[in-house]
Structures are given as C-alpha cells and as structure tokens.
Amino acid sequence: MMIRICSLVLALTVVLAGAASAQPNEYIVGPQDVLTVTVYDQADLTGKYPVDADGTLTFPLIGRVKVGGLSLHGVEAELKKELANGYLKNPQVTVAVEQFKSQRIFVMGEVRAPGTYPLSGEMTVIEALARAGSTTNDAAEEVLIVRPAAGSSGAGPVLPNQRPDANVIRVNIRDVQSGKLSQNVLLRDGDTLVVPRAQSVYVFGQVKTPGAYAITTRGTTVLQALSLAGGVTDRGSTGRVYIVRTDAAGKQVETKVKLTDVVQPGDTLVVKERFF
C-alpha cells in the first residue's frame, strides 16, 4: 500500500512539474497577474509587468494598455500594434505569465492540504490534487468538480447543495490513472474540487481488529474487507461469515456470504466462531 501511494505521489509530482512549464496562449489575463514581456532586441522594454485592478498594465513608450480579458496571444497582438504605431518597426513580442493570480480554484475534502490555489494555465484534476498534496488514505476514488454557472461569482468555494444551478462533474481518479484521459478534466476559474471520504464497512466478531474500515475502491470483496480488520482469529471460521445489510424497505437482513462476494458501503461483516 505504501509503495502504491508513493508511486501515485511521484506520478502527480511529475505531471505537475511538466504542467508548470506550460504557458498556453489561451490563458485569459486578469487583475494581479504578472506578465513577462519580451521584445526582441529591445532590452529596455523587456521585463515583468503587473496587471492592475482595472485590467491594465503600464508599458514603456505606450503607457497604459488594457490587457484584462485578453489571451496571451491577444496581449502580444495589442502590444505589437501599439509599439508599431510610431515607435518600433515590425516589433517582435512574446508574453508569458510570471505569476498566476487572477484565476483560482478551491480544493476541499480528503486532501493533505485543502485550500485555494491559483489556476495556472491548462490545469487538470490530477495537477490540482498534486498541488493540494494528493488525496488521503481515506479518500473515495471519485472526485466532484463543482462548476459555477456562467456569470456567477467565483469569490469562494461552491458546494453542490449550495448552488442548484452549478454543474457537477464526477471524475474517477482510478480511471485517470489507468489512462482514460477524458476523465482528466481541464479546470476553469472558480471550480471547486471536492474529494469525499470513502464510505465504510464494519467488521466485527472473530477478527483481530474489529471496527469501521474505509472502502476506497470498487469491487472490494469480503476477503479484502476481512484483511483490513487483520484477518480472522484462530477461533473464527471463514466459512461462517455473514453480512448484515439494510434492504430497500429499511429492514436489516443477515445473509451468509462467500469470501469472493463483493461488499457494499454500510455493510456489517460478522465472523462467527468455529463449531469445533
């Protein structure tokens, strides 16, 4: 288990490191971002420029330039146009984001460092979880992305029960890890990632460590659940394992099960003593 967790953390870190170097030109510039502007063969114009609250930056020669709401390509085109207007002949301008500050996402629930994070370029679910320190051992394998409706405020995290107009996207982290890239959703400004706690099964009777155990993967078997509880004691019988499960009518029903049967969240496993 520890090796698997370490491998996941390493994989997330590698993905994050690769994403940090990406500067997609579709990124929309906003207030408080800091841009690196490079003008070819013009060292005096090349530098870092903060975007003010009104969406403008102050640039040498041309003064205030409106860049808020533009993509990086758009900022490049605007600066080229202004510089070519009587200052430079055929200026070559490139723009990158030095500091992402105008857009942000929120990560909540079973992660090691929940909080608010800047949305840096084309950030995906996996990259956001890596920034939040990855998921905890008690995390469910499904992550919810709560996306505010168009035009709504992104001032704080949004939960599904707070905004009925929000769009909720469900992402299975195990599917992403197995290569289903369609599940690795690109995040948007104001998105809230909610990592729920995995639901539990309860294991009692003749097991070494009775108690509640989180079921983090689909298809967990009776044998795997018993292993979480330390296995069966010398007095217990693997042939006398019962599940107490609540049926559709709300009644608790006890059923004998095999070790290969699949448990459900909320099940109670009871291991009974041997006959002799």
Descriptive account of the structure:
This protein starts with a helix and ends with a strand. With 276 residues, the chain is of the alpha+beta class. It folds into 3 domains: 34-99, wza like fold (2-Layer Sandwich), CATH 3.30.1950.10; 103-195, Outer membrane lipoprotein wza domain like (Outer membrane lipoprotein wza fold like, Roll); 200-273, Roll (Outer membrane lipoprotein wza fold like), CATH 3.10.560. 18% of the residues lie in helices and 30% in strands. Strand 11 (200-205) and strand 12 (211-214) form a beta hairpin. It has 5 helices and 15 strands. The strands form 4 sheets. Strands 7-6-10-8-9 form a 5-stranded mixed beta sheet. Helix 1 crosses helix 3. The relative contact order is 0.11.
